[in-house]
Protein: Amidophosphoribosyltransferase
Amino acid sequence: CGVFGVFNNSLASHMTFLGLHALQHRGQESAGIAVSDGYDINLRTGEGLVTKALKEKDLQELKGDIAIGHVRYSTAGGSNPKNIQPFFAHFYGGSFAIAHNGNLVNAEQIREDLEKNGAIFRSTSDTEVFIHLIAKAKEPPPSHIMLHENDRDFLPLIFSAMNKVKGAYSLLILREKQLIAVRDPYGFRPLVLGKNRSGSYFIASETCALDIVDAEYLRDIKPGEVFVIDDSGMRSYFPLDHADNPRKCIFEFVYFARPDSMIFQDWVYEIRKEMGRTLAREFKVDADYVVPVLDSGLLAAKGYSEESGIPLEIGLIRNHYVGRSFIQPKQEIRDLSVKLKLNPVRQVVEGKRLVVIDDSLVRGTTSKKIVNMLRKAGAKEIHFLLSSPPVISPCYYGIDTPTKEELIAANMSIEQIRDYIGVDSLYYLSLEGMIGAANKFRQKGFCTACFTGNYPVF
Ligand code: 5GP
Ligand code: SF4
Ligand code: MG
Structure:
């Protein structure tokens, strides 16, 4: 999912619409915006792409200077209109709206406990437990924290909720007069803060969403941080005694984030390309062309081509009028959408030995079809390379990887996969190679659980 927030902008809902549009790759199932005019919070949501879910009329009706928005793809909870975010809630202390990127690993358990005590849930989403935990919290704030007077009522409730939940959360919370950002202590999902020249502040999953509203990147919201902005200024708190031990999602660099974004303080573009360069050092092959599986394989292919000296050719054309195929939750639809999305260029591939590069192999269904199409178009040899290691374990932290049964690398050897997708050779970037490519810049401290099975929290 993607989140976007605005503080101090008279066109807050329009700005949020733009921000969500830039984050569309992070979720295409639904979109929503909540706005506060200082007294009341109003909400509009819809299914599908941002431009379908929200209309100009919605934006005009959403008056106010503070807003949050969300684009969703289903992880926990499944695709269900009831799960469209932001969520809105009234409680004894007022009202708030909440938008969540990530996934809680103990949501089921908390939910069961709450339901036994009479709580009623209206969605199947893990995010809703936050609302209940916030509304029910009773503990005083940790004694080492000095709260600003504006924060004394509400923030202890968030701190208390953070103490109970486990997992990944980059959260935006909208109050009548405040915008609050919260990032889990491991910092699984990115979250950045920016500002424009007229003094509006923005918080977004990725910097490409700051670019679209002409805002400058200021800094990351840090792992474990609770950041508050209101008319009295900006404050940040670290309520959990968190070790400095981040577990940032390396898959954001491999695939999920946009290459024109800076996340976790590094450029996705550079790291993704470095993964391709590393791939070229690890696996050398005689070939005529390097062909990217667009869009996600482009930068790894560029890196591979530069490092190996094999020219890059666009041997597959991407139809841009379809979204990311994996985001369609039904297998039958996913099967079709591969053909809708990519088509080989016969003039490029006929009679040629190709190094085809994609970012990751998940189910193997896309790759098998791509290989089939390339063969039909006359490719002589196909060497299929991935700029990440085999995905062997599901993600429980907010990326929609399928169950273990559907993960091809969890069920087949590399040789069996090679045979299944029908290529001359198959090579995955090594774990060390992937981490090394990311560490070459500023990075330290990754989650790699989908490649290793080592889960930082469960
Ligand atoms: P496959 O050949 O495994 O069916 O599909 C691989 C393609 O799915 C790659 O191009 C990759 O970009 C894309 N992909 C990346 N991340 C995910 C994910 O989390 N889930 C799924 N299902 N596909 C993904
Ligand atoms: Fe990212 Fe994989 Fe960890 Fe999920 S399991 S947070 S996709 S690295
Ligand atoms: Mg892809």
User: Anything to note?
Assistant: The chain has a mean pLDDT of 94. The first helix runs from residue 12 to 22. The chain has two domains: 2-246, 270-443.
